[in-house]
Design a protein that fits this description.
The complex is a heterodimer of chains A (348) and B (503).
Chain A (H helix, E strand, L loop, with lengths): L1 H20 L1 H16 L5 H26 L7 H19 L2 H24 L5 H22 L12 E2 L11 H11 L1 E2 L2 E2 H19 L1 H11 L1 H6 L4 H27 L1 E2 L8 H11 L11 H20 L7 H27 L1
Antiparallel strand pairs in A: 1-4, 2-3
Helix pairs in contact in A: 1-2, 1-14, 2-13, 3-8, 3-9, 3-11, 3-12, 3-13, 4-5, 4-6, 4-11, 5-6, 5-11, 7-11, 8-9, 9-11, 12-13
Chain B lengths: L1 E12 L2 E12 L3 E5 L6 H8 L7 E6 L2 E2 L5 H7 L1 E4 L11 H6 L13 H15 L14 H14 L4 E5 L7 H16 L3 E5 L3 H7 L2 E6 L2 E7 L5 H9 L18 E10 L2 E9 L3 E6 L5 H8 L5 E8 L2 E2 L5 H6 L2 E4 L3 H4 L7 H12 L8 H14 L16 H13 L5 E5 L7 H16 L3 E5 L3 H7 L2 E6 L2 E7 L5 H8 L13
Parallel strand pairs in B: 3-8, 3-9, 6-7, 7-8, 13-18, 13-19, 16-17, 17-18
Antiparallel strand pairs in B: 1-2, 1-4, 4-5, 9-10, 11-12, 11-14, 14-15, 19-20
Classes of the chains: A mainly alpha (348), B alpha/beta (503).
Chain lengths: 348, 503
């Protein structure tokens, strides 16, 4: 009797410990079950679409996750995406080269991230303020330039950066179709952009768990002073995570224009900083730094895409979308915070 | 009649017994020392007394009244005040705001009666002989004044029993004197104190009676006058105490490894010093006298303004922590929690953090190799840990400190700067650390150890540099290191140094 009681107590404890540690998987599975129940005729293609629609936010969220692990935040990623994607379109329209467009998108992202990083890391300004300011700046530049740049370079769009099928001198661009095929294509039924998300997730899981740089990120977020006294160059680590995030925004910008063939400076990436932060938090990373797993971000981002799908499947008004995402975020964090307390009760 | 009677108190967390059948008796108007190593159950007992944790069994009688279920508000209401080691003050508010926080006087209409609060705060400080201006912001107060403010605050709300948890850790000797004179004055007026400390001389100076706990059990209670520090210490530690004394052995020293040449910086000036291979040099002085600042500067945490640091005859290239580390210098900083612990990380991750910054080019971490290193230090330093993958904060203070010593040994530094290495760790672990310092010196490390606890230096140091006002005022060889001599020099009470003692 006593033994059985102890046994069930222990089992309960283990389940709670598992939920506490891998809440992101539990959340994803629960949401996915709802998706399966609500979707009539769950198809492979439908599921693969989840990867496709998670790619841009997911990749940005990987960078956001590293920043949050150091205890900082980046509010500028959404604006940076619009800014970077817009200018990449211009570069494409000017050069017609996919490689140059990609390199530009990456380099431009790095510069945008570097500005944030230097101000936060070396000048030691609060990241919230710095990136709030660059959020306004990047978006504003994207919109302003869109009005001022030669219409030909905008692909003939007004107030939208549109990729052009022709070069300014009139030659047909084969690159246009190739970009489109890349952004919307599949390899063995997997969307290419989804594969890129998965590969980058694997890369960043490796970086965060098995490299010295990864451990330094955790050390800085865990105790900045302690990290400094262990010889870690805190400013450098902070600059690095912001630059990496810029680079990942560059990747996302390139994927974005490949998928959409345009970038709207007013709407592209709107609220993406919030979705990225939500994916990070849903993935179990603590906003105060030092705690959490990068793999969680991946599931966090997927979870949000699945919610979109559920809303579509239920034929609900898409305007209710954010309310549902917000409620789920609150519930998950509440479980994360209340869970350990319940666990402590169990132990008594 | 006793003011407080706690009898047969037991408490278990998750089935682990931390207190079993402990009794504590505090008379009215006495200072009662509660003694025991870290983990002996002192904090748990005090947390039960103040209602933080409920007790499993036992009775608490306070002021003649049996209290079946103590809670935090009830303990406050009864007049029990806990002055924590980490003070619970609002740093950005004024002294007066802090005293009346949550209990402000209000005029009709809801306005704060600032004048009345200010007046009463002044009266309070006057009656206690404490020199604090109620209008001052708390962050501007010295550590000792903050301590006195906490005590004053408790007394203002009629505390009958004050629990002082290591109140002297951040105080210099003068401030300790002042604190103790106030405690003595209050004692005469009938206030009782429970005094928790690891410092024997202070315990014997201020306490009337004592209670010793060990491993959650009651060991002994009695009058301080009837015992000696050695007896108390051996009862705290149990069997196996005594190894701590006499661990010093005279050794052959090697070449000069570290040379400071007229080094000046913030808090110290014109320091020249030579340390040889295998040598242990003690640095001491009153708080703020420059010894800790010097170690920080050698390690590159703060910049030196003039002079030079030479390692093996070569000047250290560049300033900053990384340059110092590359030159083979390591610093074990004070305040472990603030400066060393990476609380979210494992024991292993904490141990290898510094080495990682020296070998940044090879990014991949070989877990196998790191576990081998862990095993090496685990054995060498006898770190009591179950698994290297447990969180570092699951270890006791002494074992955490060993992890951080391992962190620096792992960088293969030749020069170890130890700043207050035994802060907040218990007697048993202290003895192990002294022993370890001796072993490291024998293996050829050059060690500079800064401490305010002179008995430590008697156990390990080949010589001792006494700091006063930013300069080395006297260097004592091992034979001459003793508490009285050092104290005389560190307060600049000796006049044999060529008029250096007149500012």
């Amino acid at each position: 009797m006593n033994n059985a009681q102890a046994g069930s107590k222990k089992a309960g404890e283990n389940i709670l410990t598992f939920i506490g540690r891998h809440s992101y998987i539990v959340v994803f599975v629960l949401i996915f079950i709802v998706y399966m129940l609500t979707t009539s005729g769950l198809t492979w293609g439908g599921m693969m679409n989840i990867f496709r629609h998670s790619a841009v936010v997911g990749i940005i969220a990987l960078g956001m996750g590293l920043i949050c692990l150091t205890g900082e935040i980046d509010l500028s990623v959404g604006s940076m995406l619009a800014f970077d994607a817009g200018f990449s379109v211009v570069v494409f329209n000017k050069t017609g080269s996919i490689i140059l467009t990609l390199l530009f998108a990456l380099a431009f992202g790095v510069v945008c991230g570097l500005i944030n990083g230097l101000l936060v890391g070396y000048i030691q300004m609060p990241a919230f303020i710095v990136t709030l300011a660059t959020m306004l700046i990047y978006r504003s530049f994207a919109q302003y330039c869109c009005q001022r740049i030669d219409k030909v370079l905008l692909g003939g769009g007004s107030s939208v950066y549109k990729m052009s099928r022709k070069l300014p001198d009139g030659t047909e661009l084969a690159a246009y179709q190739r970009m489109y095929n890349f952004g919307n294509g599949k390899i063995a039924t997997l969307p290419i952009v989804g594969i890129i998300l998965i590969l980058l997730t694997i890369l960043f899981v490796y970086i965060s768990t098995s490299t010295k740089f990864g451990k330094k990120i955790y050390a800085v977020g865990s105790n900045t002073k302690g990290a400094q006294m262990a010889g870690i160059n805190v400013a450098k680590v902070k600059v690095a995570v912001f630059v990496i995030t810029g680079l990942l925004v560059g990747v996302s910008a390139f994927l974005w224009i490949s998928m959409n063939a345009s970038a709207d400076p007013a709407t592209t990436g709107n609220s993406y900083e919030m979705y990225a932060i939500a994916a990070v938090v849903l993935g179990g990373i603590s906003m105060s730094g030092g705690k959490g797993r990068v793999l969680g971000i991946f599931f966090g981002a997927l979870s949000y895409t699945v919610i979109d799908k559920i809303i579509v499947a239920l034929k609900m008004d898409s305007l209710i979308n954010n309310a549902i995402k917000g409620i789920i975020l609150i519930i998950v964090i509440m479980v994360q915070i209340v869970g350990p307390k319940v666990r402590a009760r169990f132990k008594k | 009649m006793s003011l407080l009677e706690m009898s047969d108190i037991s408490k278990a967390f998750n089935g682990v017994t931390v207190l079993s059948g402990v009794s504590l008796n505090v008379e009215k108007g006495e200072v009662h020392a509660l003694l025991g190593e870290n983990g002996a159950g002192k904090s748990t007992l005090m947390n039960i007394l103040t209602g933080v944790y409920p007790k499993d069994t036992g009775t608490i009688t306070f002021d003649g009244e049996t209290i079946p279920a103590m809670t935090i508000p009830l303990s406050e209401q009864k007049g029990i005040a806990f002055v924590h080691q980490e003070l619970n003050l609002f740093n950005d508010l004024t002294v007066c705001d802090n005293i009346f926080m949550g209990k402000e006087y209000v005029k009709r209409g809801g306005m704060l009666d600032k004048r009345k609060m200010m007046k009463e705060a002044r009266e309070l400080f006057n009656s206690l002989g404490v020199d604090i201006d109620p209008t001052e912001t708390v962050s501007g107060l010295s550590a000792s004044k903050k301590q006195l403010l906490e005590i004053s605050k408790a007394l203002f709300f009629n505390a009958k029993l004050l629990i002082l948890d290591e109140p002297t850790t951040s105080l210099n000797n003068e401030e300790v004197d002042h604190l103790f004179s106030i405690v003595n004055g209050l004692k005469e007026q009938g206030t009782s104190f429970i005094f928790i400390s690891h410092k024997m001389p202070e315990i014997f100076r201020i306490s009337d009676r004592y209670t010793i706990l060990r491993n959650g059990r009651f060991i002994e209670t009695g009058k301080i006058a009837d015992t000696t520090p050695e007896q108390v210490a051996s009862k705290m530690v149990g069997e196996g105490f005594s190894a701590a004394a006499g661990s010093y052995t005279k050794r052959e020293l090697g070449d000069v490894v570290l040379k400071l040449d007229h080094l000046s910086g913030e808090g110290f000036s014109d320091i020249s010093l030579e340390a040889r291979k295998g040598e242990v040099i003690g640095l001491t002085g009153l708080q703020g006298s420059g010894s800790s600042e010097l170690l920080h500067s050698i390690f590159g945490v703060t910049r030196h303004t003039s002079g030079s640091i030479l390692v093996h005859g070569q000047p250290v290239s560049g300033q900053g922590i990384h340059s110092a580390m590359k030159a083979g210098i390591a610093l074990l900083p004070p305040n472990r929690k603030e400066n060393s612990v990476l609380p979210d990380m494992t024991i292993l991750e904490n141990m290898v953090a510094a080495e990682h910054t020296l070998s940044g080019n090879k990014q991949h971490i070989s877990v196998k190799r790191e576990l081998e290193k862990y095993e090496k230090y685990h054995e060498m330093l006898s770190i009591k840990a179950e698994s290297p993958l447990d969180p570092v904060i699951s270890l006791s203070g002494g074992n955490q400190q060993k992890v951080f010593i391992a962190r620096w040994l792992n960088t293969e530094a030749d020069i170890l700067l130890l700043d207050n290495p035994t802060q907040g760790i218990d007697i048993g672990a202290k003895a192990e650390i002294y022993h370890l310092i001796m072993e490291l010196a024998k293996s050829g490390k050059t060690i500079l150890i800064n401490t305010l606890e002179i008995p430590e230096l008697e156990k390990v140091a080949d010589s001792c540099a006494v700091f006063y006002n930013g300069s080395i005022i006297k260097t004592l060889p091992h034979e001459e290191i003793d508490e009285t001599t050092v104290m005389l020099y560190s307060t600049n009470a000796v006049d044999d140094n060529g008029g250096n003692n007149h500012e």
